[in-house]
Every structure is written in C-alpha cells, then in structure tokens.
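## retry 2 of 3
previous attempt timed out at serialization; input unchanged, resubmitting
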Amino acid sequence: MKPNYLISHVVVLLTFMMWSQVSIAQVDDWKLVREDEGIKVFSRIGETSSIKEIRITCSVKSSMEHLESFLSDVPKYADWVYKCDTSLLLKQISNTEIIYYITLNFPFPMTDRDLVIHSKHSIDSLGVYRSHSAASTEFPTKASDFIRISQFESTWEISPQSDGTLYIDYFAHSDPGGDLPAWLINMAIDQGPYHTMKQFIEQLEKGSVE
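## retry succeeded, writing output
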C-alpha cells in the first residue's frame, strides 16, 4: 500500500469516527423532562442560545391524509396551540407552503406575543411527512400591544407505523423576546409544548373518529 494512500485512508477513517461520536453526543444531549399520556418531552441547551430546545415524541391514531389537512388548517390552530388567541393565514404560497400569523396570551404582568411564521411541508415516497417552520420578516408591521417574536424554528417528522398509527417527532426552539431571562424561560420550557401536543392529539383523533 502506497504511503499517500494509507494516509488518506486513515484521515477518512478518523473523520468518520469523529463525526459518528459527535452525532451520538448530539442525540444523547436530549434529556427527558416529562412523560405523560404517551407524550415524551425532551430538552437540551442549543449551540447558539442559552434557551433550551424542545423535542417531543408520541404516537397518534390518524390517517396521514387527515393529519396533513389538520396541520394545514391555520384558523383552527387557536383550538390546540397552547395560549394561542389568534391564528390567521396571511399568504397561501402553494398547497405545501404558507405564511401565517398567531398571537400568544402571556400571563400577567408580561406582554402578549405575536409571531409571523413561514412554513413548508412535504410527504416523501415512503409516506413520511416533514415540515419546517421559522419566524418570517415578510409582514413586518407590529401591533403596539404585542412583542414580536423574531426567533422561532420548528420541525415535524411524522412516520406511518405498521399498526396504523403515526409516530410524531417534533422539534422547536424559540426566544420569546422582551426582558425575560433565559433561566426563567427554561424553568417552564416543557409546559407549552406538552399542552400543545396533548391538545393536538385530542383534536386530531376526535376529527379522525368523526
């Protein structure tokens, strides 16, 4: 074996080993912070923020067709998104891409928040639903009685299972802005996502039965 080839082979091998270790470490970073009614909530500190990221896993009884329709019905988000008072579709870019607006009711004496979100989704050849949503600046007008959330990102990955259920893997990270310290936000970081997912499952399965 030539020396140069041997060196290249070793470099590739070491790179792969390092990448594998980093990937495993990233997975292991998630800490289970709540488990109730089949809903598991994990959290971890992100790479660029002291506010924790959230991951939720659970299963739901529904068809993929019904779930896609349910997640596309923006005006009904206020029925299941935790503390959401308003949910309005601002722009329908395509059947799989939208921009929408929501308001969130924060406890007194904190100021309520609002947020403009750009969202895309797709379903691959295996029937797996994936979506990515992020805060948008396309509609910059801000209501005076709200603080605009400018940092938000979420993803859904939903996979059909052999027993007819759908397995949900949800990720979210958001900075509510204002003067709230990270330690205070992190204290209750699991509350909103857990209750949102619980209400999401209840509403989705209710619609599936009907």
